[in-house]
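Sequence only, no structure available. Ideas?
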Amino acid sequence: MAGGGLAVAAAGGVEFEAKITPIVIISCIMAATGGLMFGYDVGVSGGVTAMPDFLKKFFPVVYRKTEEGKLATFFASYTTRRLGRRLTMLIAGVFFIFGVIFNAAAVNLAMLIVGRILLGCGVGFANQAVPVFLSEIAPTRIRGGLNILFQLNVTIGILFANLVNYGTAKIEGGWGWRLSLGLAGIPALMLTVGALLVVDTPNSLIERGKLEEGKAVLRKIRGTDNVEPEYLELVEASRIAKEVKHPFRNLLLLRKNRPPLIISIALQFFQQFTGINAIMFYAPVLFSTLGFGNDASLYSTVITGAVNVLSTIVSIYSVDKLGRRILLLEAGVQMFFAQVVIAIILGIKVTETSDNLSTGFAVLVVIMVCTFISAFAWSWGPLGWLIPSETFPLETRSAGQSITVCINLVFTFVIAQAFLSMLCHFKFGIFLFFSGWVLIMSIFVWFLVPETKNIPIEEMTERVWKRHWLWKRFMDDDDEYVHHDDLAKKNGFVGPL
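Reply:
I predicted one. Tokens follow.
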């Protein structure tokens, strides 16, 4: 193809012509700032609750941050489908900005709680809309890399927040925590402005009946007038989507929707059971053992944060070349090895009379920590968001993404609440516990997770699910749309879902 274009083979020998256009790159970068907002919120919350000045003023229990986003993500599913991906991102940014204002200016517990609820709504709406937006607007051959921009921004946000917390904790006068919380407004403002500037996805426009506008945007983002094959496929997907009056009911009842639903839920579960929380918890302790003293927390933050960011960049460049499966499987081996080595070393330490690791052992454990973090950052971290966003059909994509986000938040909360208790009971064995889960999830990937690289998202059913040894069994007569009322009665459901 001339002009540096990309030709993506579609079903029946048709090709979708697409160039890597500036508008796509800029739109994806702007939308991905939703990840920066999410990452900063995750990073700043834990640090602020540890600041003495904050603890004197408020109860830290209000900072159980995973609670607020669960309900918001279901409302976000409706706005993503009915109002579009772009407007949902705008709503997310506005929610977050108001949440930042309430938190940074908080003078009592009520203001802080209202602020956290608004921040949770912002995170819920952003995590719902941004991955879907990125997957739909990106050319197929670089869809994975552009989607992972979201996760890259999450890692950058966490690193930036940790560095900010380290600095503001040293500010005298008791207002450092306000600065930490207030700076969250920067990524929120970036997402809000970005949502005002970007175009909505052709999938969303066509789904909402704006056919000509959708076709015009498709020409614009693909950099060519030859968009008819892709446009017709989107129109057909939209026709099917419009027949679905209750997407959540459709998602839960139709057999053809179970493969992407099962895989999405499993990926969110496994992502939290990789043991990333155990690794990140131990990092500052290990740096203290190496003699960094009071600066151990800073060095831990910088080194683990930098490994996280750089490894996510590796994923951006490799996910569309190597594929999703190979990254997940390779990372499984790497994470399993790192956790077993850490468990053995800490197990030896527990049997010694000394309470501290020797420098040599501590250095080896730090290397293993970085080995683990790098594997997670180029696999389960970003791909847990990428794969669900590209595998659901248009008619259930918003509902599927909302369930994905909700499951992620639920298991994040579960691990966060159970971790310290598990650590007290298992001690070094906690790494063996998580390594066992890494083995299980790798087996799951080997047998049940299909490869989705270079497959147009509207063709996943024909070219992925119908060709998989197990999931093809779910693509039976239910593959044709079944009237939702009849299906509901058949399965004993009453009322809207």
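Residues 1-14, 60-67, 478-497 have pLDDT under 50 and may be disordered.
Hope that gets you unstuck.
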